[in-house]
Structures are given as C-alpha cells and as structure tokens.
Design brief:
It contains six helices and ten strands; from the N terminus they run H-H-E-H-H-E-H-E-E-E-E-E-E-E-E-H. Strands 1, 2, 3, 4, 5, 6, 7, 8, 9 and 10 form a ten-stranded antiparallel β-sheet that branches. It is globular and about 75 Å long. The N terminus is likely disordered.
C-alpha cells in the first residue's frame, strides 16, 4: 500500500461521512493566506525567506474556469456555501474515489440532474473516496490566472496535428505492449510521476528544504525530488535531458524563482522543449503562493500562468511504498500473456 500524509491516514480512521465533511466543511474564506498584522516573512540563517516545511496542495479550485462561470473570476462566500451543500449530495464516502474536476462535475450535475464521477480505475474500483485528502475551498473560479478568461491558450496547428496523430496511435495500439516491465509507464513502475506535480488531493504534499547553494523540492508522489541549484550558472546543453528537467533557482525579492528546461517528456501536453518558471512566495505563516508559467511555442499560442495555494501541514511525509511497482508488475504482465493466449485459442496457465 501507499503510506499517505497523516491527514489522510486520520481521515480513514474516522467513521461516518468523513469526505462529506472534508469536501463540504472546509473554509471558504475569500482571502485565505492573508497575513496577520505585523507578520514578517521568517528568514533562514543566510537571510533568505524561509520556505521550509511540508506544504499541501488540496485546493478544490479547478484548473480551468467552468463554462457556467465564464464571466466570473471569483465567487461570493454565499456561493461557496452553496457548493459545499452540493458536495454533501454527490459524495459517497464508500464509493469510488473522485478524481478530476470535481467542481465541474457538480455544476454539470446541477444542470443535467445526474452526477457522473470519474474514478481512477472504475473497472476494479481500487481507489475509494476515503483515500482522498481534505479539500480546501476558496473563491477563485480557476487556478489559471493568465489568460484572464481562466482557460488554456489556443493550441498551435502543430499541436493539434500532434495530438490527432497520438490519438490515432492509441486507437490502433490500445494501451501499448506489455512484453516486459520496460514497456509499462514510469509512473506505473513507481519510478517517477513527473515533476512538478500539480494535481491536488492525492499524494499532493511537498517538502521544501533550503541551503545557501541548493533547494530541495520533494513531492510525496513517488518521492520525486528536484535538486535546484541556487548558484549562478547556465542550463545544461540542450542535448542533455532529464525527467524533471534542469531546474535553476534564484531569488527575486522574497520569491524563490525556479526555471526549468531540458525535459525528457512534456508538461500538461507540451513538447519536451517546454520552459517552466515557478515562483514560491510565502504570504502568511500558513500559506505559500506557488505560481507556474508554462511556455512552449510549439504547443500553445502564448504562455499561460496558474497559481496554487500551498497550505502548511503538520507532521512529515511518509514513505511512498508503491505496490504497483513492488508487487503488481508480475500480475500486469501475466494478464497480458493471458490475453495473448486467449487470442491464440490456448488456455492460460493457472
């Protein structure tokens, strides 16, 4: 199994409608993260803003603005309370885990009269809702802050053609071969989930560790760690690619700026030539504003920026023990062999 953050473990131990509470009773303040009067940014020994600790990304705010709110960048506190009441109607603590855009699902259900949740694996039902961490509400209608409409910029013609070709390949090949473990995705093999990981609600905690020369960004999912060089220097030659890119850090005022290039894979559908610029700004004792600007002229017509509020967490990040890579790979490959045997008319071995 996977060992989750203490807040998730605690949620699984409480009887009753825990997730209804976690989805419907969180704070809906219009200004989470507002610093108390007189508060000053804490400093490390070398005088830099102290961002260290464990921080959670559990916002319920969708990445893109729902169509029902196309002209609204923020909601009132009363509208947030209405959303919380809706959550109590649609969340089944014992049902499949709800992944994806939960707010959009609720709004669609309100319009269409039916709630359709998107489980990670609806076939086996291997994730229940009680696995999920507590969600946080705020009045923003999208994480995307630029473009102002809260939507991704238009795709370039090149990106449209690239995605169509990828869809055709998937349709022809299915999920791909399973001849050996190397054919399976890195995430399934518990090697890397990619970084930065911006999904909320499940293994969505980050630990920040600072020194004068290096900042470590450790994410809970598969324990991917990025070592960010804080000393002056240039990026690696373009021919040298890494799973998490080549992150370089600097300070701009009280914001930690991390610029990453040289990826092996893309980010949110980009090409490997994407450039990510992250800004970490501590705005109160309990919150860091995490802004990410994504630039890839081969995929989008212009850059876009989104902002996630990271909340201070208590305790530590537990070991990430991933059963898929440790135990299930044999079963995954055996299932592929059984399908092949069935296609040949041969009875699979027991």
């Amino acid at each position: 199994m996977r060992f989750l953050h203490p807040v998730v473990v605690a949620a699984t131990l409480v009887a009753g409608s825990v997730l209804v509470v976690s989805l419907a009773a969180q704070s809906g303040s219009a200004s989470p993260g507002v610093a108390p009067a007189g508060w000053k940014v804490p400093r490390t020994a070398d005088g830099k803003p102290d961002l260290q600790g464990v921080w959670g990304n559990n916002s319920v705010t969708p990445m893109t603005r729902p169509t029902q709110w196309k002209d609204k960048s923020s909601l009132t506190d009363a509208e947030i309370e209405d959303l919380k009441k809706m959550a109590t109607q649609y969340v089944d603590q014992g049902g499949d885990a709800i992944f994806g855009n939960f707010v959009q699902m609720m709004l669609n259900a309100k319009d269409q009269g039916a709630f359709k949740q998107t489980s990670y694996d609806p076939t086996t039902g291997n994730y229940n809702q009680f696995w999920m961490a507590d969600r946080e509400w705020d009045t923003r209608t999208s994480l995307i802050t630029d473009p102002p409409d809260g939507q991704f910029p238009p795709l370039t013609p090149e990106a449209v053609a690239r995605r169509a070709e990828a869809a055709n390949v998937r349709a022809a090949r299915g999920r791909g071969p399973s001849d050996g473990p190397e054919d399976r995705p890195l995430s399934e093999r518990c090697i890397s989930y990619g970084a930065p990981r911006t999904s909320a609600n499940y293994n969505s905690y980050m630990q920040i560790i600072q020194s004068p020369t290096t900042t470590v960004l450790l994410q809970e999912m598969i324990h991917d760690a990025r070592l960010v060089a804080m000393t002056p220097g240039t990026h690696l030659p373009v021919r040298i690619r890494q799973l998490h890119g080549d992150p370089r850090g600097r300070w701009e005022g009280d914001s930690l700026v991390v610029e990453s290039t040289n990826f092996i894979n893309g980010f949110q559908g980009s090409t490997p030539d994407v450039k990510l610029t992250e800004r970490y700004t501590r705005v109160s004792p309990d919150y860091i504003n995490w802004e990410i600007t994504v630039e890839d002229p081969k995929t989008w017509s212009e850059p876009y920026t989104f902002m996630i509020r990271l909340k201070k967490a208590t305790g530590m990040i537990y070991e990430y023990a991933c059963h898929e890579g440790n135990y299930a790979m044999e079963g995954i490959l055996a299932g592929a062999r059984a399908e092949e045997a069935k296609a040949r008319g041969v009875k699979p071995r027991e």
